[in-house]
Design goal:
The complex is a heterodimer of chains A (147) and B (140).
Chain A (H helix, E strand, L loop, with lengths): L3 E7 L7 E8 L8 H18 L3 H12 L4 H26 L4 H21 L5 H20 L1
Antiparallel strand pairs in A: 1-2
Chain B lengths: L2 H16 L4 H12 L4 H25 L5 H23 L3 H29 E7 L2 E7 L1
Antiparallel strand pairs in B: 1-2
Classes of the chains: A mainly alpha (147), B mainly alpha (140).
Amino acid sequence: MKNFNVTKKIYSANDGKIIELKLEPKEKVKKVNIFVKLFAGVIIGLVNGFFGGGGGMICVPILSQVIKLPDKKAHATTLLVMLPLCIASLIVYIIKNPLSWISVAEISGGFVLGGLIGAYILKFINNIWLGIIFSVIIIAGGVKMIL
Amino acid sequence: MNVFWLILAGFISGIIGGMGMGGGTLLIPILTIFLSFSQKEAQSINLISFIPMAIVALIIHIKNKLVDYKVGIPIMSIGIIFSVLGSFVVSKIKNDILRKIFGFFLLLVGLNQLIQTIITYKKTKHVGDIKGFRFKIYVK
């Protein structure tokens, strides 16, 4: 067990509710070639600029699977990467396409509120079903947009 | 446009975003399919929505010393340049074409998410019941 970080997620007591133990290899982040990082930056930047988001969905797996950061660090470091990227591309977007700020305020307000609740209820939810439902919705949305 | 639907659209995507599953990939299709925003408007709104939560979460992570600067800063610095480049490229593309490209991107993201979820599920081993608890172990 020396080489693992053990995290426990205790969901609730009694009647067969799930306790999850997660074993993660301890950090073996050593030398990652600088070109790997730069290449990651190119891909993440292009995708995020082009699609106005989604860079994080590429950044997290790169950091955790290629650079071997532990999950929590990968998420935290992704935010450090994504925040300036989003601000930079947002400036270009707004210069090129002016927005109606009233609807933006409402959507973003809802988003922040939802975000707080999402972060809170994360502990109580079965990730696997959530993952499946989310991916099916996303696939359906994708098909609808192509057609 | 009804205020209620705008807030609801943000709220639902926010919940998914707060769970770290990419709320933006949900917000953009909701805005374009149901609320008839143009693709570029939806993308700008998604960028804006991400910023306030990211700032708060980043501050918390920095305090908890979870941010790896050695990895993050090189990726970020080159990323900014290409992100700006990507945004300029987008401004040259028509909304309806961009919408189709985005749909294709969503399809890939969704399929990848589905595969990852199934892999995680398969790697989850049910080790047995102890005093009425079910234990599951994820081995990475």
